């Protein structure tokens, strides 16, 4: 297939590329800048120039391909709500370009959207429209397209990691450096699910080749790693002290990440693995945090 890949120069998208090429697919990669276009050309990709602020450019890329994998997202968390609305517009535009075809559109969300109202691990059969995470806009945009019989499949991400990045943990390190200590709330028993980026990339391709219209897939490998274990790993890697904090101290130590500080983001992957035959093999989160390139992380 000729696959239009948004986010092709990003953390996850750059790992999806070799998985697609290795399976014999052609890749049309989205690039915003000349530098990004050059990187994609060097990797042997065809380049489609476009911008997340111009939905029509993503729609034209979708129309020129046999399938779409939408990994791109604006990760400026100072404008997180606005960025989710931008994602909503881009999904709508690509979906409109694919309407009336059988071409699949894979979109990217977070595992938290599958958390049941009563709590517990997120599951693929749940879409919680009341979830506090503004990223719900992504899945509601997808649901609107599914209602129009457009083949939308959703990949829900946990904390995606290697030794250079680790989802929300990367900015958590920056906040810890600012505050002078790595913190966890109370006893630190809240948990975040996680997966190595290589396993996540494989899942996108499996969902493309074997997935079903309307399905949601969880890219979580570890159901949940405790906040305390994460904090202690960061403390060891950075040399910062690690401490438990009370609720009233959360904003000081977590900054803009305060709403996530005591949030359980655990997720099951049982259905995904059974349906797609996904067999993760990458390192676990704490292994990568132990080998994290913390000096380089300070420069990002």
Descriptive notes:
The protein is α/β, with parallel strands linked by helices and 300 residues long. Helix content is 39%, strand content 19%. It is built from 12 helices and 12 strands. It has helices spanning 13-22, 34-42, 55-63, 80-98, 136-146, 169-179, 197-210, 227-238, 250-254, 270-276, 285-290, 294-297; strands spanning 2-6, 26-31, 46-49, 67-70, 105-110, 152-157, 159-161, 182-185, 191-196, 216-218, 222-226, 242-245. Strands 3-2-1-4-5-6-10 form a 7-stranded parallel beta sheet, sandwiched between helices. Helix 5 links the parallel strand 5 and strand 6. Helix 1 crosses helix 7 and helix 4 (80-98) runs parallel beside helix 5. The radius of gyration is 19 Å and the shape is globular. The two termini are 35 Å apart. 44% of the residues are buried. The mean pLDDT is 94.
Alpha-beta classification: alpha/beta
Query: Which stretches of 5+ consecutive residues score pLDDT under 50?
Result: none
Mean pLDDT: 94
Question: Main sheet?
Answer: 7 strands, parallel
Order of helices and strands: EHEHEHEHEHEEHEEHEEHEHHHH
- Give the count of helical stretches: 12
Shape assignment: globular
β-strand amount = 15-25%
N/C terminus separation: 35 Å
Strand order of the largest sheet: 3-2-1-4-5-6-10
The number of strands is: 12
Q: What is the subunit arrangement here?
A: single chain
Radius of gyration: 19 Å
- Helicity, as a percent range: 25-40%
Ordered list of secondary-structure elements with their pairings:
Elements: E1 2-6, H1 13-22, E2 26-31, H2 34-42, E3 46-49, H3 55-63, E4 67-70, H4 80-98, E5 105-110, H5 136-146, E6 152-157, E7 159-161, H6 169-179, E8 182-185, E9 191-196, H7 197-210, E10 216-218, E11 222-226, H8 227-238, E12 242-245, H9 250-254, H10 270-276, H11 285-290, H12 294-297
Parallel strand pairs: 1-2, 1-4, 2-3, 4-5, 5-6, 6-10, 7-9, 8-12
Antiparallel strand pairs: 9-11
């Amino acid at each position: 297939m000729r696959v239009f890949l948004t986010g092709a120069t990003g953390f996850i998208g750059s790992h999806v590329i070799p998985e697609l090429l290795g399976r014999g697919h052609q890749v049309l990669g989205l690039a915003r800048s000349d530098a990004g276009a050059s990187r994609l050309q060097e990797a042997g990709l065809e380049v489609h120039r476009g911008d997340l602020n111009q939905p029509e450019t993503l729609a034209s890329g979708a129309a020129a391909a046999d399938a779409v994998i939408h990994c791109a997202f604006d990760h400026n968390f100072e404008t997180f709500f606005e960025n989710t609305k931008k994602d909503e517009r881009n999904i709508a535009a690509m979906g409109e370009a694919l309407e009336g075809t059988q071409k699949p559109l894979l979109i990217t969300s977070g595992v938290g959207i599958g958390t049941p109202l009563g709590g517990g691990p997120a599951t693929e059969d749940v879409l919680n429209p009341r979830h506090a995470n503004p990223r719900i806009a992504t899945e509601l945009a997808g649901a609107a397209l599914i209602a129009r019989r457009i083949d939308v499949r959703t990949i829900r991400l946990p904390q995606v990691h290697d030794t250079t990045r680790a989802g929300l943990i990367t900015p958590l390190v920056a906040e810890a450096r600012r505050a002078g200590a790595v913190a966890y709330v109370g006893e630190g028993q809240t948990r975040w699910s996680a997966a190595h980026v290589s396993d996540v990339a494989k899942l996108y391709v499996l969902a493309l080749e074997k997935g079903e219209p309307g399905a949601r897939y969880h890219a979580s490998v570890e159901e949940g790693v405790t906040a305390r274990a994460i904090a202690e790993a960061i403390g060891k890697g950075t040399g910062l002290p690690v401490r438990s904090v009370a609720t009233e101290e959360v904003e000081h130590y977590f900054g803009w990440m305060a709403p996530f500080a005591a949030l359980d983001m655990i997720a099951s992957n049982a259905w995904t693995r059974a349906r797609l035959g996904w067999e993760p093999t990458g390192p676990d989160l704490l292994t990568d945090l132990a080998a994290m390139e913390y000096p380089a992380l300070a420069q990002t």
